Request: fold
Amino acid sequence: MLKLLSFFNIFGILTAAETTAAETAAEATKLFFEPKNFINMLGYMGKGMLVIFIIIGVIILVTMLVSRIFSKKSK
Reply:
């Protein structure tokens, strides 16, 4: 049990032996908004959305191609 507690203490989950679960949970739920970091991440978000758009386009094209190849021709 002591090894487990020291493992969590390395990552800052337990800051002191007397830290209660409620105090730890309160610390873990704090959110910080830093506009500079948000602006820096816009490029990554844009690239991610572009990749998603391209993948969806490829899926649509493959679906159309497979539909045309395997559709029954009516005369």
About this structure: The two ends are 77 Å apart (CA to CA). The first helix runs from residue 2 to 10.
